Amino acid sequence: MIAGVDNNSIVYLNGEYLRLADAKVSVLDRGFVFGDGIYEVVPIYNGKPFRMHQHIARLQRSLQSVRIDIEYTEAQWMALVEGVLARAEQPQANLMVYLQVTRGVAKRDHAFPAGIEPTVFCMASPFARPGTAQRERGLSAISVPDTRWLLCHIKSVSLLGNVLAKQAAIDAGVDEVLQFRDGFLTEGSSCNIWVVKNGVLMAPEANHLILEGIRYRFLAQLARDAGIPFQARPISAEEVNVADELMLTSATKEVLPIVQYNGNSVGAGKPGPVYSVLRASYDRVIESL
Ligand code: PMP
């Protein structure tokens, strides 16, 4: 039994629907041995998947990038996710779908093994949307060096760098980290970071140094729709220090303000006007699903 999860929830593993507590993979699964796999996290609002098409497209891109050979169409991925959602205890609740594919099980050897089937796993768990305190009081963050590899655009399960970054935040008593490579902002431990200066919304370019979140284009579009100028460009540590507003986006955090950074207030030390517009737009889109 695993603490903190519903051990009776039904998950998908390699063609079968099983109780979470009964779903097992081999110790020789390359996901376990090498972190040789990729994943997705998709939010479901009142039973309705949000931006599923984009999540499946990113999953397909990740699979291609790491050369895991699995010939599933978008419809097949959808059917698998819908199978898990249909078996959820509360299918109409807010849920988080986790999908993972590893290269499969084989004798331990770095080289790709021939003739094995990828391991495919999918589960849905309850998802609590960010509450009033986080939305209205905001979050705190510190800066840390980005020590990860150079293929951060792949949504790989090899997340040790991200795990260490997140723990650095916890150890410092803050909510999140902003990672910097060669003096320029990359992203948070598991979120994209946004900077506002003089009414302009900015984010680092979506290249190999960050994971392009599904909320990356979405937030940029919400900004454009609201008449807020958006720029994707390199952002230096000095610019972050003097930002008017900082915010983050991810599937689970949606969009949240960062109001304390390296022990200083960001702007007025409370959620700013650009955040408020984007937060309200985000909520409207969710409500209209
Ligand atoms: N960057 C990293 C490193 C992440 O882990 C995530 C969340 N999976 C994101 C950005 C945000 O991506 P999304 O908006 O798709 O949740």
Outline of the structure:
This protein is an alpha+beta fold. The protein folds into two domains: 10-126, D-amino Acid Aminotransferase, Chain A, domain 1 (2-Layer Sandwich); 132-287, D-amino Acid Aminotransferase, Chain A, domain 2, CATH 3.20.10.10. It contains eight helices and 15 strands.
Describe this structure in words.
The protein is 28% helix and 27% strand. With 289 residues, the chain is of the alpha+beta class. It folds into two domains: 10-126, Aminotransferase class 4, branched-chain amino acid transferase, N-terminal domain (D-amino Acid Aminotransferase, Chain A, domain 1); 132-287, Alpha-Beta Barrel (D-amino Acid Aminotransferase, Chain A, domain 2). Strands 7, 8, 9, 10, 11, 12, 13, 14 and 15 form a nine-stranded mixed sheet that branches. A six-stranded antiparallel sheet has the order 2-1-6-5-3-4. α5 links the parallel β7 and β8 (176-181). The longest helix is centred in the last third of the chain and has 15 residues, at 273-287. The model has no long low-confidence stretch (mean pLDDT 97). The chain binds 4'-deoxy-4'-aminopyridoxal-5'-phosphate. Residues 41, 162, 187, 190-192, 211, 213-215, 249-251 line the site of 4'-deoxy-4'-aminopyridoxal-5'-phosphate.
Provide the residue-averaged pLDDT.
Answer: 97
Structural class: alpha+beta
State the low-pLDDT regions, or none.
none
Q: What is CATH's topology name of the largest domain?
A: D-amino Acid Aminotransferase, Chain A, domain 2
Please tally the helical runs, counting DSSP H or I stretches of 4 or more residues: 8
Report the sheet-strand fraction.
25-35%
Number of domains: 2
Q: Portion of residues in helices?
A: 25-40%
User: Over the alpha carbons, how many angstroms does the gyration radius reach?
Assistant: 20 Å
H-E string: EEHEEHHEEHEHEEEEHEHEEEH
